[in-house]
Design brief:
Belongs to the class-I pyridoxal-phosphate-dependent aminotransferase family. With 410 residues, the chain is of the alpha/beta class. Helices cover 41% and strands 13% of the residues. Mean pLDDT is 92; it is low at 401-410.
Protein backbone atom coordinates (compact mmCIF):
# COMPACT_ATOMS: atom_id res chain seq x y z
CA UNK A 1 0.00 0.00 0.00
CA UNK A 2 1.12 3.57 -0.62
CA UNK A 3 0.81 6.47 1.78
CA UNK A 4 -2.26 7.61 -0.16
CA UNK A 5 -4.05 4.27 0.25
CA UNK A 6 -7.36 4.78 1.98
CA UNK A 7 -7.41 3.19 5.44
CA UNK A 8 -10.73 2.89 7.26
CA UNK A 9 -10.31 2.22 11.01
CA UNK A 10 -12.26 -0.72 12.35
CA UNK A 11 -15.07 0.22 14.73
CA UNK A 12 -14.11 0.07 18.38
CA UNK A 13 -16.81 -2.53 19.00
CA UNK A 14 -14.53 -5.06 17.28
CA UNK A 15 -11.48 -4.19 19.36
CA UNK A 16 -11.70 -7.38 21.42
CA UNK A 17 -13.38 -9.61 18.83
CA UNK A 18 -11.19 -11.67 16.54
CA UNK A 19 -12.16 -13.84 13.62
CA UNK A 20 -14.06 -16.96 14.68
CA UNK A 21 -11.59 -19.77 15.47
CA UNK A 22 -13.04 -22.24 12.97
CA UNK A 23 -13.07 -19.63 10.23
CA UNK A 24 -9.29 -19.31 10.62
CA UNK A 25 -8.68 -23.02 11.19
CA UNK A 26 -10.57 -24.09 8.09
CA UNK A 27 -8.30 -21.88 5.98
CA UNK A 28 -5.25 -23.47 7.60
CA UNK A 29 -6.56 -26.98 6.96
CA UNK A 30 -7.45 -26.06 3.37
CA UNK A 31 -3.88 -24.86 2.81
CA UNK A 32 -2.50 -28.12 4.21
CA UNK A 33 -4.82 -30.12 1.96
CA UNK A 34 -3.81 -28.05 -1.05
CA UNK A 35 -0.22 -29.05 -0.29
CA UNK A 36 -1.25 -32.72 -0.32
CA UNK A 37 -1.67 -33.39 3.42
CA UNK A 38 -5.16 -35.00 3.18
CA UNK A 39 -6.28 -33.91 6.65
CA UNK A 40 -9.23 -35.63 8.33
CA UNK A 41 -11.22 -32.92 10.09
CA UNK A 42 -12.90 -34.11 13.29
CA UNK A 43 -13.34 -30.60 14.60
CA UNK A 44 -16.60 -29.06 13.47
CA UNK A 45 -20.11 -30.25 14.35
CA UNK A 46 -21.63 -29.92 10.89
CA UNK A 47 -23.86 -32.98 10.29
CA UNK A 48 -22.76 -34.93 7.22
CA UNK A 49 -26.06 -36.81 6.93
CA UNK A 50 -28.95 -35.50 4.79
CA UNK A 51 -32.37 -34.44 6.05
CA UNK A 52 -35.29 -36.84 5.79
CA UNK A 53 -36.49 -37.45 2.18
CA UNK A 54 -39.84 -35.84 3.01
CA UNK A 55 -38.00 -32.63 3.88
CA UNK A 56 -36.18 -32.60 0.56
CA UNK A 57 -39.44 -33.33 -1.25
CA UNK A 58 -41.19 -30.43 0.49
CA UNK A 59 -38.35 -28.11 -0.49
CA UNK A 60 -38.45 -29.19 -4.14
CA UNK A 61 -42.24 -28.99 -4.39
CA UNK A 62 -42.33 -25.50 -2.91
CA UNK A 63 -39.39 -24.24 -4.97
CA UNK A 64 -41.18 -25.32 -8.15
CA UNK A 65 -44.02 -22.88 -7.43
CA UNK A 66 -43.58 -19.58 -9.29
CA UNK A 67 -44.90 -17.59 -6.32
CA UNK A 68 -42.40 -19.03 -3.79
CA UNK A 69 -39.46 -16.76 -4.49
CA UNK A 70 -40.41 -13.37 -3.13
CA UNK A 71 -39.68 -11.69 0.18
CA UNK A 72 -41.23 -13.33 3.22
CA UNK A 73 -42.55 -11.98 6.49
CA UNK A 74 -40.13 -11.23 9.30
CA UNK A 75 -41.93 -13.58 11.71
CA UNK A 76 -42.08 -16.59 9.43
CA UNK A 77 -45.25 -18.13 8.05
CA UNK A 78 -48.11 -19.03 10.39
CA UNK A 79 -47.61 -22.67 9.35
CA UNK A 80 -43.97 -22.65 10.46
CA UNK A 81 -44.72 -20.96 13.77
CA UNK A 82 -47.49 -23.49 14.43
CA UNK A 83 -45.20 -26.40 13.53
CA UNK A 84 -42.61 -25.06 15.99
CA UNK A 85 -45.23 -24.65 18.72
CA UNK A 86 -46.53 -28.18 18.05
CA UNK A 87 -42.97 -29.53 18.26
CA UNK A 88 -42.53 -27.94 21.70
CA UNK A 89 -45.84 -29.34 22.91
CA UNK A 90 -45.15 -32.84 21.59
CA UNK A 91 -41.53 -33.24 22.69
CA UNK A 92 -41.18 -30.95 25.72
CA UNK A 93 -44.73 -30.63 27.04
CA UNK A 94 -44.49 -26.85 26.64
CA UNK A 95 -47.55 -24.94 25.41
CA UNK A 96 -46.65 -21.89 23.30
CA UNK A 97 -48.86 -19.39 21.52
CA UNK A 98 -47.70 -19.78 17.92
CA UNK A 99 -48.61 -16.23 16.92
CA UNK A 100 -46.67 -14.44 19.65
CA UNK A 101 -44.40 -16.79 21.62
CA UNK A 102 -42.46 -18.32 18.70
CA UNK A 103 -40.09 -16.40 16.43
CA UNK A 104 -38.41 -18.29 13.55
CA UNK A 105 -34.77 -17.35 12.97
CA UNK A 106 -32.13 -17.78 10.29
CA UNK A 107 -30.34 -20.10 12.71
CA UNK A 108 -29.97 -19.79 16.47
CA UNK A 109 -26.54 -18.18 16.13
CA UNK A 110 -28.35 -15.24 14.54
CA UNK A 111 -30.70 -15.23 17.51
CA UNK A 112 -27.83 -14.76 19.94
CA UNK A 113 -26.80 -11.59 18.14
CA UNK A 114 -30.39 -10.35 17.97
CA UNK A 115 -30.85 -10.83 21.71
CA UNK A 116 -27.56 -9.14 22.53
CA UNK A 117 -28.22 -6.17 20.28
CA UNK A 118 -31.75 -5.83 21.64
CA UNK A 119 -30.89 -5.86 25.34
CA UNK A 120 -27.18 -5.20 25.93
CA UNK A 121 -25.16 -1.98 25.83
CA UNK A 122 -22.19 -0.40 27.57
CA UNK A 123 -22.68 -0.52 31.33
CA UNK A 124 -24.66 -3.76 31.24
CA UNK A 125 -23.19 -7.09 32.33
CA UNK A 126 -23.84 -10.57 30.96
CA UNK A 127 -23.07 -13.97 32.51
CA UNK A 128 -21.48 -16.48 30.12
CA UNK A 129 -20.18 -20.01 30.77
CA UNK A 130 -16.50 -20.95 30.85
CA UNK A 131 -16.13 -23.23 28.93
CA UNK A 132 -18.85 -22.33 26.46
CA UNK A 133 -19.71 -21.57 22.86
CA UNK A 134 -17.32 -18.77 21.71
CA UNK A 135 -20.15 -16.82 20.08
CA UNK A 136 -21.57 -16.02 23.53
CA UNK A 137 -18.51 -13.93 24.31
CA UNK A 138 -18.36 -12.42 20.82
CA UNK A 139 -21.92 -11.05 20.80
CA UNK A 140 -21.46 -9.51 24.26
CA UNK A 141 -18.19 -7.87 23.24
CA UNK A 142 -19.70 -6.42 20.07
CA UNK A 143 -22.46 -4.85 22.16
CA UNK A 144 -19.97 -3.30 24.58
CA UNK A 145 -21.29 -5.22 27.57
CA UNK A 146 -19.18 -6.38 30.49
CA UNK A 147 -18.52 -10.12 30.35
CA UNK A 148 -18.71 -12.03 33.61
CA UNK A 149 -17.71 -15.64 33.27
CA UNK A 150 -19.22 -18.27 35.51
CA UNK A 151 -16.99 -21.26 36.01
CA UNK A 152 -17.93 -24.74 34.92
CA UNK A 153 -15.60 -27.51 36.07
CA UNK A 154 -15.49 -31.26 35.82
CA UNK A 155 -15.38 -31.49 39.62
CA UNK A 156 -18.72 -29.66 39.81
CA UNK A 157 -20.29 -31.73 37.04
CA UNK A 158 -20.00 -28.83 34.57
CA UNK A 159 -22.88 -27.04 36.32
CA UNK A 160 -22.63 -23.47 37.67
CA UNK A 161 -22.43 -22.75 41.38
CA UNK A 162 -25.55 -20.60 41.68
CA UNK A 163 -24.94 -19.89 45.37
CA UNK A 164 -21.49 -18.49 44.59
CA UNK A 165 -22.97 -16.35 41.82
CA UNK A 166 -25.68 -15.07 44.14
CA UNK A 167 -23.02 -13.88 46.57
CA UNK A 168 -21.63 -11.48 43.92
CA UNK A 169 -22.98 -8.11 42.82
CA UNK A 170 -25.47 -8.94 40.08
CA UNK A 171 -27.15 -5.53 39.94
CA UNK A 172 -25.93 -4.76 36.41
CA UNK A 173 -26.43 -8.25 34.99
CA UNK A 174 -29.18 -8.28 32.36
CA UNK A 175 -28.68 -11.64 30.69
CA UNK A 176 -27.36 -15.06 31.65
CA UNK A 177 -26.49 -17.39 28.76
CA UNK A 178 -26.94 -21.08 29.56
CA UNK A 179 -26.63 -24.14 27.34
CA UNK A 180 -27.80 -27.64 28.32
CA UNK A 181 -27.11 -30.19 27.03
CA UNK A 182 -23.83 -28.33 27.25
CA UNK A 183 -21.40 -27.77 24.42
CA UNK A 184 -18.51 -28.63 24.54
CA UNK A 185 -18.74 -30.98 27.57
CA UNK A 186 -21.88 -32.94 26.62
CA UNK A 187 -23.40 -32.44 30.08
CA UNK A 188 -27.18 -32.74 30.35
CA UNK A 189 -28.93 -30.76 33.09
CA UNK A 190 -31.86 -32.31 34.94
CA UNK A 191 -35.18 -30.71 35.83
CA UNK A 192 -34.26 -29.95 39.48
CA UNK A 193 -31.23 -27.95 38.34
CA UNK A 194 -33.24 -26.07 35.69
CA UNK A 195 -35.82 -25.29 38.37
CA UNK A 196 -33.10 -23.81 40.60
CA UNK A 197 -31.84 -21.82 37.63
CA UNK A 198 -35.26 -20.25 37.05
CA UNK A 199 -35.56 -19.39 40.75
CA UNK A 200 -32.11 -17.76 40.62
CA UNK A 201 -33.12 -15.63 37.62
CA UNK A 202 -36.40 -14.60 39.26
CA UNK A 203 -34.62 -13.58 42.46
CA UNK A 204 -32.01 -11.47 40.65
CA UNK A 205 -34.23 -10.18 37.83
CA UNK A 206 -32.04 -11.65 35.09
CA UNK A 207 -33.25 -12.79 31.66
CA UNK A 208 -32.12 -16.38 31.04
CA UNK A 209 -31.19 -17.21 27.46
CA UNK A 210 -31.14 -20.99 27.08
CA UNK A 211 -29.40 -22.33 23.97
CA UNK A 212 -30.88 -25.80 23.41
CA UNK A 213 -29.85 -27.40 20.08
CA UNK A 214 -28.43 -30.74 21.29
CA UNK A 215 -31.19 -32.40 23.30
CA UNK A 216 -32.13 -34.99 20.68
CA UNK A 217 -28.63 -36.31 19.94
CA UNK A 218 -27.42 -39.31 21.99
CA UNK A 219 -29.65 -38.36 24.91
CA UNK A 220 -30.72 -41.39 26.92
CA UNK A 221 -33.42 -39.38 28.72
CA UNK A 222 -36.31 -37.39 27.23
CA UNK A 223 -35.08 -33.97 26.05
CA UNK A 224 -35.85 -31.03 28.30
CA UNK A 225 -36.79 -27.44 27.62
CA UNK A 226 -36.06 -24.78 30.21
CA UNK A 227 -39.51 -23.42 29.40
CA UNK A 228 -41.04 -26.57 30.94
CA UNK A 229 -40.11 -25.26 34.40
CA UNK A 230 -43.12 -23.56 36.05
CA UNK A 231 -42.66 -19.80 35.88
CA UNK A 232 -39.84 -19.98 33.32
CA UNK A 233 -41.73 -17.96 30.73
CA UNK A 234 -41.53 -14.97 33.07
CA UNK A 235 -37.71 -14.91 33.09
CA UNK A 236 -36.44 -17.03 30.19
CA UNK A 237 -36.31 -17.41 26.45
CA UNK A 238 -35.02 -20.46 24.60
CA UNK A 239 -33.11 -20.78 21.35
CA UNK A 240 -33.48 -23.98 19.36
CA UNK A 241 -32.37 -25.17 15.96
CA UNK A 242 -32.94 -27.78 13.26
CA UNK A 243 -29.22 -27.80 12.44
CA UNK A 244 -28.25 -30.79 14.58
CA UNK A 245 -31.56 -32.53 15.29
CA UNK A 246 -32.67 -32.62 11.64
CA UNK A 247 -29.39 -32.43 9.68
CA UNK A 248 -30.20 -28.95 8.38
CA UNK A 249 -27.18 -26.91 9.49
CA UNK A 250 -26.72 -25.11 6.17
CA UNK A 251 -30.43 -24.40 5.80
CA UNK A 252 -30.30 -21.90 8.71
CA UNK A 253 -33.53 -22.67 10.52
CA UNK A 254 -33.80 -21.83 14.19
CA UNK A 255 -36.28 -20.37 16.60
CA UNK A 256 -36.63 -18.20 19.66
CA UNK A 257 -39.39 -19.18 22.08
CA UNK A 258 -40.62 -17.28 25.10
CA UNK A 259 -42.58 -14.31 26.38
CA UNK A 260 -44.47 -12.36 23.74
CA UNK A 261 -43.20 -8.92 24.78
CA UNK A 262 -39.56 -10.08 24.78
CA UNK A 263 -39.95 -11.58 21.31
CA UNK A 264 -41.61 -8.38 20.10
CA UNK A 265 -38.60 -6.39 21.28
CA UNK A 266 -36.24 -8.78 19.48
CA UNK A 267 -38.33 -8.46 16.32
CA UNK A 268 -37.71 -4.69 16.34
CA UNK A 269 -34.02 -5.42 15.78
CA UNK A 270 -34.39 -8.53 13.62
CA UNK A 271 -36.75 -6.87 11.14
CA UNK A 272 -34.00 -4.39 10.29
CA UNK A 273 -31.44 -7.16 9.68
CA UNK A 274 -33.06 -9.61 7.25
CA UNK A 275 -35.87 -9.92 4.76
CA UNK A 276 -37.39 -13.19 5.91
CA UNK A 277 -36.62 -16.87 5.37
CA UNK A 278 -36.91 -18.44 1.89
CA UNK A 279 -40.44 -19.88 1.68
CA UNK A 280 -39.43 -23.37 0.44
CA UNK A 281 -37.05 -23.65 3.41
CA UNK A 282 -39.90 -22.75 5.75
CA UNK A 283 -42.17 -25.36 4.21
CA UNK A 284 -39.42 -27.98 4.36
CA UNK A 285 -38.91 -27.09 8.04
CA UNK A 286 -42.61 -27.74 8.67
CA UNK A 287 -42.10 -31.25 7.26
CA UNK A 288 -38.99 -31.79 9.40
CA UNK A 289 -40.71 -30.71 12.60
CA UNK A 290 -43.50 -33.24 11.97
CA UNK A 291 -41.15 -36.25 11.85
CA UNK A 292 -41.79 -38.99 14.38
CA UNK A 293 -39.53 -40.56 17.00
CA UNK A 294 -38.25 -43.11 14.47
CA UNK A 295 -36.27 -40.28 12.83
CA UNK A 296 -34.35 -39.63 16.05
CA UNK A 297 -33.93 -43.35 16.74
CA UNK A 298 -32.30 -43.93 13.35
CA UNK A 299 -30.14 -40.83 13.70
CA UNK A 300 -28.88 -41.87 17.11
CA UNK A 301 -28.13 -45.42 15.99
CA UNK A 302 -25.69 -43.91 13.50
CA UNK A 303 -24.12 -41.62 16.10
CA UNK A 304 -23.76 -44.44 18.64
CA UNK A 305 -21.68 -46.47 16.18
CA UNK A 306 -19.55 -43.42 15.44
CA UNK A 307 -19.14 -42.65 19.12
CA UNK A 308 -17.52 -46.06 19.73
CA UNK A 309 -14.88 -45.30 17.11
CA UNK A 310 -14.22 -41.81 18.46
CA UNK A 311 -13.81 -43.16 21.99
CA UNK A 312 -11.26 -45.67 20.63
CA UNK A 313 -9.41 -42.85 18.90
CA UNK A 314 -9.27 -40.79 22.07
CA UNK A 315 -8.12 -43.78 24.08
CA UNK A 316 -5.36 -44.32 21.50
CA UNK A 317 -3.89 -40.92 22.41
CA UNK A 318 -4.23 -41.51 26.14
CA UNK A 319 -7.58 -39.80 26.81
CA UNK A 320 -10.41 -41.31 28.87
CA UNK A 321 -13.70 -39.63 27.89
CA UNK A 322 -16.45 -39.61 30.51
CA UNK A 323 -19.55 -41.71 29.68
CA UNK A 324 -23.05 -40.31 29.26
CA UNK A 325 -22.22 -37.31 27.08
CA UNK A 326 -25.03 -35.82 24.98
CA UNK A 327 -24.69 -34.19 21.57
CA UNK A 328 -22.49 -34.37 18.49
CA UNK A 329 -19.10 -34.35 20.23
CA UNK A 330 -16.95 -36.29 22.67
CA UNK A 331 -15.08 -34.26 25.29
CA UNK A 332 -12.06 -35.65 27.09
CA UNK A 333 -9.23 -34.50 29.35
CA UNK A 334 -5.78 -34.63 27.79
CA UNK A 335 -3.44 -37.27 29.25
CA UNK A 336 -0.91 -36.52 31.94
CA UNK A 337 2.29 -35.11 30.54
CA UNK A 338 0.56 -33.18 27.74
CA UNK A 339 0.53 -29.42 28.30
CA UNK A 340 -3.02 -28.74 27.10
CA UNK A 341 -5.54 -29.36 24.35
CA UNK A 342 -3.68 -27.15 21.91
CA UNK A 343 -0.54 -29.23 22.33
CA UNK A 344 -2.41 -32.49 21.80
CA UNK A 345 -4.31 -31.09 18.80
CA UNK A 346 -1.09 -29.86 17.18
CA UNK A 347 0.66 -33.17 17.81
CA UNK A 348 -2.14 -35.28 16.34
CA UNK A 349 -2.43 -32.96 13.35
CA UNK A 350 1.30 -33.11 12.63
CA UNK A 351 1.72 -36.81 13.35
CA UNK A 352 -1.51 -38.39 12.11
CA UNK A 353 -2.99 -35.71 9.82
CA UNK A 354 -6.18 -35.67 11.94
CA UNK A 355 -7.59 -32.45 13.37
CA UNK A 356 -9.15 -32.45 16.84
CA UNK A 357 -10.50 -29.28 18.47
CA UNK A 358 -8.49 -27.92 21.43
CA UNK A 359 -10.76 -27.29 24.40
CA UNK A 360 -9.11 -23.95 25.12
CA UNK A 361 -11.07 -22.24 22.35
CA UNK A 362 -14.14 -22.57 24.60
CA UNK A 363 -12.53 -20.77 27.55
CA UNK A 364 -9.74 -21.17 30.07
CA UNK A 365 -11.55 -23.99 31.88
CA UNK A 366 -11.40 -26.01 28.67
CA UNK A 367 -7.63 -25.70 28.33
CA UNK A 368 -6.89 -29.21 29.54
CA UNK A 369 -9.40 -30.89 27.22
CA UNK A 370 -9.95 -31.94 23.63
CA UNK A 371 -13.21 -32.19 21.65
CA UNK A 372 -13.92 -34.58 18.77
CA UNK A 373 -16.87 -34.36 16.37
CA UNK A 374 -19.06 -37.30 15.38
CA UNK A 375 -19.90 -35.70 12.04
CA UNK A 376 -17.91 -38.03 9.80
CA UNK A 377 -18.89 -41.42 8.32
CA UNK A 378 -17.65 -44.57 10.03
CA UNK A 379 -15.26 -45.19 7.14
CA UNK A 380 -13.56 -41.84 7.76
CA UNK A 381 -13.44 -42.40 11.51
CA UNK A 382 -11.86 -45.82 10.96
CA UNK A 383 -9.25 -44.18 8.73
CA UNK A 384 -8.59 -41.55 11.40
CA UNK A 385 -8.26 -44.25 14.06
CA UNK A 386 -5.83 -46.21 11.89
CA UNK A 387 -3.73 -43.09 11.30
CA UNK A 388 -3.58 -42.29 15.01
CA UNK A 389 -2.61 -45.86 15.90
CA UNK A 390 0.08 -45.91 13.21
CA UNK A 391 1.45 -42.61 14.52
CA UNK A 392 1.44 -43.90 18.08
CA UNK A 393 3.18 -47.11 17.03
CA UNK A 394 5.84 -45.05 15.27
CA UNK A 395 6.34 -42.92 18.38
CA UNK A 396 6.69 -45.87 20.71
CA UNK A 397 8.07 -48.52 18.38
CA UNK A 398 11.76 -48.05 19.06
CA UNK A 399 11.21 -47.95 22.80
CA UNK A 400 9.19 -51.18 22.68
CA UNK A 401 11.74 -52.97 20.49
CA UNK A 402 14.52 -52.16 22.95
CA UNK A 403 12.67 -53.93 25.79
CA UNK A 404 12.17 -57.64 26.48
CA UNK A 405 9.09 -58.91 24.63
CA UNK A 406 6.99 -59.39 27.78
CA UNK A 407 7.57 -55.71 28.70
CA UNK A 408 6.93 -54.46 25.17
CA UNK A 409 3.49 -56.09 25.23
CA UNK A 410 2.51 -54.63 28.61
Amino acid sequence: MTENTLHIPVASRLAHTGEYYFSRKLRELAALNAAGANIINLGIGSPDLPPHPSVLAALATSAAQPTAHGYQGYQGTPALRQAMADFYQRHYGVALEAATEVLPLLGSKEGLMHLAMTFLEAGDAVLIPNPGYPTYRAVAEICGAEIREYNLTEAAGWLPDLDALAATDLSRVKLMLVNYPHMPTGTAADLPFLTRLVAFARQHRILLVHDNPYGFILNETPPLSLLAVPGALEVAVELNSLSKSHNMAGWRVGLLAGRADVLADVLRFKSNMDSGMFLPVQQAAVAALALGDDWFQDLNATYRARRELVVELLQAVGCAPAPGQVGLFIWAAVPAGVADGYALSDAVLAGARVFLTPGGIFGSNGGGYIRVSLCQPESVLRDALARVREWQNTLHGRHAEAQPKHLARS
